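#lab-general

N.A. 3:47 PM
ok so I finally got the sequence cleaned up, no stray characters, all 667 residues accounted for. can someone with queue access submit it? mine expired

B.Y. 3:52 PM
send it over

N.A. 3:53 PM
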Amino acid sequence: MSENLPSYCRSRFAPLRRKTTPVHVGDVIVGGNAPIAVQSMTNTKTQDIEGTVKQCIQLAEANCDIVRVTAQNIKAAQALEGIRKGFSAAGFAHIPLVADIHFLPKAAMEALNHVEKVRINPGNFADQKKFKSHDYTDKEYNLEIERIYEVVTPFYKRCKELGRSVRIGTNHGSLSDRILNRYGDTPMGMCESAMEFLRIARDNDFHDIVLSMKSSNTKVALQAYRLMVAMMEKEDFHLPLHLGVTEAGNGDDARIKSAIGISGLLNDGLGDTIRVSLTEDPVAEVPVGRQIAEKAEKLWTEADTSLENKTQQISYTFEKRAIEPTSVGSCSVGDLNPPRVITPLDCSLSETDKIKAIIADLQEKHDSLDIEGVFLRNSSVEATKIPELVDAISDEVGFVLIDVSPYSIDKLPQHSKLAYYLETKNTVVTETYLNALTETSPVLFLNTNPKDVLPLADSLKAAPTGKVVLSTTTFEKGQTPVSAYRAILETLKNLNLNLPLWVRHTHNNAVSNLGYSDQLLEAAALIGAVICEGSGDFVSVETMNTSEQALVLEYNILQGARTRSSKTEYVACPSCGRTLFDLQTTTANIRERTGHLKGVTIAVMGCIVNGPGEMADADFGYVGGQPGKVNLYVGKQAVKFSIPSDDAVDELINLIKEHGMWTEPNA
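B.Y. 4:20 PM
back already:
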């Protein structure tokens, strides 16, 4: 089906904003030419009107544009009246409130009386999830659609009467049994779930709708949003998008996942309002959202409109790009090998003692992270001394990458763990290096402007197989760093060349050169987006202050892109009024005690709403079952019930041990 869809964006080579129909959420406009609206969500109990109003005020003062509040039952929906009045009385009548609804249409109807927008989940608004398998006939399926029509139509009609807007918020983790049985737990299933509700809205002449396609898996989120836009375009819907990666967790990991998923779409011109979901104080979400939004808006403002409609054919399912198998030292890429990490060292090759000290420190602090490639830009030493200097450090690393521009090609030495780095500043000089490569030469990592790939085509084709890797650190004004890599890939595809790609984040291709958190978001947005599209064989972050920061961030980005596991993976919801235990404290406790379990995925979910679904690829789940009680899962299956919160982490660890996935942490 996806093969017959239009492109999801105006250009794959420029960040041209998608044209959408503006939707009014109270006084805030979402879509059209309006700025990106930043959202967050309260985590107080909704019936605690005073506490919820206080948190709404804190979010407003943090520059939050839209505030969401859960309404998990009728009483919570009724409490929205007092929350709206208190929030307005505090001077924030201009900031809209959104009611978050699951399972209860009656709660949604009540919420419409008090707030400017209601979020409904098509997976559970008109369906009860029972995890039952059933092979629906077309007749049975259509009868189910008719039943949903009857449930949803009164809701849309009431929205029109009151001038309210709606978010159709599809979650990967809470698709209905009917959708799961026909489409599976897939991006297509997510999109079909939303399209059913869109078609019903159109039949009722209701159009004030915003869409979201959230998942804790960044690859799934990117695919689902892109597929959703293409499906809407085919049926002439032009509704705004709410972007987010759900259950992202906390700390750097959550920010990395959010940047991959949200910026990956914004850089394609998709997205009109965003929420960064953190298992932290909700106020912490707002500045991260602002950073992401400001970068995207800067790129949108400068977008090159001449590149409109210049798009690559894209698959809406993940496919890893096939490349020439390439070995560099002890590291191989291609086939089933993961992307390899290259860590920059601010040293000269001659400073072997310093290099060994840095590497030893990295190994001591991060013993689960392999030191694969090290990149030495300041490597100008006598050519004859290079082999012995590489020998001095090669036991500790996979390979050593040195800048060979100071050397003539005939003077370059060889070594089993040596790789060459060269920048394309002069195509004639570059051709000389390429033409001199032999089957036994070290691999040449060639940093090039995308426009220089075509002039080098003959030399690239003539180079021995597995001896050239391409990268770029420049992007044209009006484009994005991701656009530059797409341009290289497009040229390689046209030349029928399958050269590996080294994805680099440097100060040269940074959107803005600011502090650590700023560069973390940019590096994740660039590297994560390319990796999630199936490309990228080597990665490096060259904007950090230390090699340690770079190494850790590189591995964390690969983990956030669901490409390489180097530590425990956590799927943790951001907490809301439905949460049945102290989520922040519990998540921190679980991290502290299980953070050494490399390759194990643990889900920490405050309630059942998205629990089993978002835990689809988790090994173990810790889910709130009732106040102060926890249910433990293995995959989607609940195996232990109503465990007191005080005992639940110990029981989780026992469960991991029972399944043979526990290892003792290092002393």
